[in-house]
Each structure stands twice: as structure tokens, then as C-alpha cells.
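Dear colleagues,

As part of the handover before I leave the project, I'm documenting each prediction I ran so the next person doesn't have to rerun anything. This entry is a single chain, and its sequence is reproduced below.
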Amino acid sequence: FNSTGPNSAATGPYQNLTISTTWGSYTPSGSASFSISQATGSGDISPGGFPLNTSNGHVVRYVSFSATPPLTFTLTPDAVFTMASPGTFGGTTCYLYSLNGGQNNTPVWTAILGPQSPSGNPPAVHFPAQSIAPNTVSVGNNNASGSNGIVYLSLNCN
């Protein structure tokens, strides 16, 4: 990863889904390791690790990002997420949700990108570069969600 960005990372295919992302610049400068993991929620993740997204349509995939040392990325204008699969997304309108701290520090799923519709052959959902408040995201190497922790996303389609 390059501290001045943009940086691209990809994972998959995992159960026929490939995920690629683009991130902006990050701090601190220097070398860093960065990883992306995918899960379906059907036995290949630990439900105790974070709350499942059960109220926002069909969950296509959970995604987690981690980094060592912890990095703070800028997301504008380089927040691009493309998710491609030869299978079905289970709906025609998709959103990308992020697990954020809510009331009383209880994590809640918040829509950050979308709506976008799957298109192409094989079908893909592409979330174009856009502003995501607060335009930075911290990715770390501990087990907390949000600031200086693992970043959890879910792709949900209706």
C-alpha cells in the first residue's frame, strides 16, 4: 500500500463473489499490511464477533478490513467498491452498510453507499467514488469496530 494513494485491494472469488476496493491516502506513512476477509454469515463467521445485519434486506456478503499498524484512510474521491458474482445478488437494489457505534456505544448497521443495481454479465454491483461522511475510516489490528479497529461492511440487496 502507498501512503499517498490511491490503493487497490481485492479478495476472492469466495463462493463466487469477488470484491475489489480502492482507498485514498493514509496515515501514518510507511509500510503497512492490509487484509480483506469475506463471509456469508451461514456458518463461516462467528456470530459472537459482531452483530449480524438482519433488518436491511438480503445479506449477500459480510466484508472485514484490517491493517497493521492501524491506518486512517481518506475516502474521497477514492471510495470505490465493486462486487462481482456469476450468481444472484438476491435483489435488484443494493446498499453497502457499515458497522458503526450507535447509542450507548452499541454497534448498529448504517447504510453508507447505494442504492446501486447489479448489472453486466457476470452481474456486478459497483459503488462509484463518492463522499462518505466523515470522509475517513480507521482500519486497525484489534477486534473493535470502527475507530482503530476492524472495519465491517455488509452488502445487502432487496
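The chain has no helices and twelve strands. The longest strand covers residues 58-68.

All the best with the project,
I.
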